[in-house]
Amino acid sequence: MKVAVILGGTSFERDVSLKTGKAVLEACRMNNYAVEVLTIDKNYKNFLPILKKVDIVFNALHGTLGEDGTIQKWLEENNIKFTGSDSISSALCMNKIECKKILKKNKFLTPKWVEFEESLEITDVSLPCIVKPNEQGSTFGLSYVEKAKDLMPAILNSQKFDKSTLIEEYITGKEITVGIIEENPMPIVEILPKNRIYDYKCKYTAGMSDYNCPADIKKALSEKIMSDSVKIFKLLGCKGYGRIDFIIDKNEDYYFLEINTLPGMTSTSLLPIAAKAQGLSFSELVKKIIDLGLKVKSLK
């Protein structure tokens, strides 16, 4: 079988994508696939003749272009199979505010939030809070704000990455993530960052975070979170695989933070940690993701 691994991209997450792509490439070789490696930039359409000749595209891109439905829509229009969610779901899940609206409407808990607008009074914001770009991943532009004087600088930092800024209630608790593959939940991973928040440094620097998998959570609560994760995955129209982040407060209420339709696949990434706890090697995980992508019916 011939697989094209697309990596790189034009977003702030390019470096993360290159690491994901490299790891996926090695796994594809272990699975004895014939592999084309394509480093994508804004001229990605030039690769169409190559992509037309492969059985499937493994989308190892992260952030805008690769994760927001742009690449997915173009691949769909050209009848090329690819891993992960379709263009509609990808675009929706990249938009944190829209996801939160849908989940709130469907009775799932999510931290209170406001979208920053010029008319917003700083005094209207409850502190402490989290400030982050609405459509960005890998915690780029994310800030924890405790004092009112630090709010505007945090907003300006967020706006370097996206013009839309989400200001969210800060909830103290246990941060967890639930991987989903083929509409089945994977073991819950508890994240223990060395910093106050799980920021870029904690995500991608070895030793800056510890992980418990399975998470130290009561069985009944764990089962409920996993069940709701699958419901959220389906509600948002996701396909193949993904990862959903939550925070559990002292009352054991759990709040949806965000969903990732193209989770990182690096050496410190969370989905491979969950897969390992499930007895699935990295190369087996990649094979399963590819097999799921091949099952998707053609749009034409």
Distance between the termini: 22 Å
Provide the domain count.
3
The helix content, as a percent range, equals 25-40%
User: Could you please say which CATH topology of the largest domain applies here?
Assistant: D-amino Acid Aminotransferase, Chain A, domain 1
Discrete helix count:
10
**Shape from CA axes?**
globular
CATH class of the largest domain: Alpha Beta
Description:
Strands 8, 9, 10, 11, 12 and 13 form a six-stranded antiparallel beta sheet that branches. The chain has a four-stranded antiparallel beta sheet with strand order 4-7-5-6. It starts with a strand and ends in a 5-residue tail after the last helix. A hairpin with a 5-residue loop joins strand 12 and strand 13. It is globular and about 55 Å long. The protein folds into three domains: 82 residues, Rossmann fold; 129 residues, 2-Layer Sandwich (D-amino Acid Aminotransferase, Chain A, domain 1), CATH 3.30.470.20; 57 residues, Dna Ligase, domain 1 (2-Layer Sandwich). The chain has 300 residues and is of the alpha+beta class. Helix 1 crosses helix 10 and helix 3 runs antiparallel to helix 4.
